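Follow-up to my post from last week.
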Amino acid sequence: MKKGFNLMKSIIFTLTALLCFNGAAFATIDWESKGMQIAGEIIANPAGFFYDFQQDLESTTPLPPGKVFGIQTGLFPTTIPLTYTNVSGKLRLHGEGRIAPGVPQVDLIGGYWDMLAVKMATKDSDTIDSAKFGGYYMGAIVSSSVSPRVRTFWGYKHSVMAAKLAFKPGEEPDFMGTTVNSFDTGFKDDFVIAGIETPKGVSKLWSMQLNYGLKTQSITSKISWYGKFFELGLNIFPEGVLVIHPVWNFHLNF
Amino acid sequence: MKKIILSAVIAAGLAGRLCAAVAEDSKIFTPYFDMSLNEAAYVPSVGNLFSGGNINTQVGLLTKITQKDHLFGLYNFNYAGPSFAPQDSKQFTDRSMTHSFTFEYRRNIGEKWRVRPGVAFSSDYSRTGANEAWKNGLYNMKSSGLQLAADYTFDFERNGVVSLTYLAKAVEFPNYTDLLREFKGSGVASELSGGLQDQGIKQVSLRPVWGKWFGGFTYTQQDYKNQKVVDNTGVYGNTKQQDKTTMIDGGFHQKLWIFELYPMVSYSVHTSNQNFIRYKSLGASPTNGGLLDGTSDVTFVGKNYDYKELTLSVPLDLNITGKWAIGGAINMTNRKYTSRHQRNSNNDYVDGMQKNLMTTMTGSIRKRINETAMVRLYYGLTVASSNNKFEKYMPGNYTGNTLGLSYQLSY
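User reply:
Got it. Predicted complex:
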């Protein structure tokens, strides 16, 4: 393992050196225009931007075999730094093979979040008149072992988010030459979920899944590693503003 | 361990994808699951930094009805994000999303023969840098088709199989319209400019596999339902557009000590009866000797789309340990147009035919997480060159860097 790590270090060093030698081709990165582009994309579709973070806290993997219920809360980037206070739960309706051999595990999933910063800002702010950022999701996951080390899962979730913000008259901010009075937007869609799970070590699992929104054609791919207490993940939103979200969640399963 | 092995070479979509799937003897249902994800940052020498990804999910189920009769269903989701692409193919910012369903019935006849009739449906969404809603994409496409395939096993010891496949598809582009024609004839019969990309596709392929070797011959014919051919008088005639592509390809997969090599080469000849009228600028009118004079501002280019293309891919993996591997790969696409002259930066045709070359060199580190999962970190250097120097809309000459991460889980 250590040998492999040293090898990896030397390869990364070589790749970095190669990148440096090829510096001429990097001369054209225009960070300012990239920043403007990103800001423009958020303004064009604020609901999409905030909903991507909702997907970070949504728990869409099946309960580990033998567990009956579980709770989860998203730590990063949801609670910190975005103040999305949130809780999710899972409940097993049927354990795999209980009724008859081959009948899959069935879990109900769901969760709720509310953005604390917005509540505080509305209360104390001289500029914000009213605001509401929050959402919920609910659905079900069916999972089936296809070998002792591989489990595939399938699911459905209904996801809803509301994002409303209004500024006090005379206090409207100016953004890229446009005065922003208010926005009232939301996101609602039904998703299908397909994923695969495989063990990485003792009580540690590795999974990969696709969430596909049937009405909005939104695509999310989640890769995650999880153990008894924590889940680390990379959520990829290929059409989103921030394409890669590193994710850290806390969960307990009983 | 893996119960269904899908062929790495996908030749004719429906045809190549399914033929290598094999059922485990003891089971009635054998699932197949393959999910890969790739996300990368792209830095071109022309234009700004962008990111792009590729997601592919395949879910299949093979059902053994009797020892001789099998039924196979496959759903494939593919998202192709922004990326570097060979010249004249797509813009960096173009994205597409495909859902495809395939169902195949298999019947073994004797020991050596197997027949595979099937049906396939697919729905394609496309999106450009303009970020239109997926459902409004100009090039959104729907297709449905039939397949008839036969496999003949000629060498049981070395897995020698030859497959003959016939495929017929009807393809519709419900949103497509010729914008220029609509502008010109606004208020008259603009709707008539729709449906111009609708076409019927017929394909025949013959693909032998023998041990580590594979190869194939594929002939594809595209018959456009409405698109007419533009004549050298500058107006559309009565002949409908027809494109033909003939391709031969081959390769092998060789393991030697820690080295794993799987090179592939393909050569295709594309011909189309469609011609092209080059307007040097919007509103240009014929000058000098008229349409057929190569120096005119409005020039007729016969057989503009005909080309010959060679692609070469040489991936090499060094399996350092059971878990870790270093990879290197060279990919090359070389296209030579047979009747299209090269253009200078001023959009004038000059002597010599247009030639495009795109080469990508990739270095990677691969870690195998377990028998079903792997992760790869890679860096790629793309060098694209073309003697077409008119690059107002699509870059033909650029250098690009790619740094990406890919995951794969397959069962």
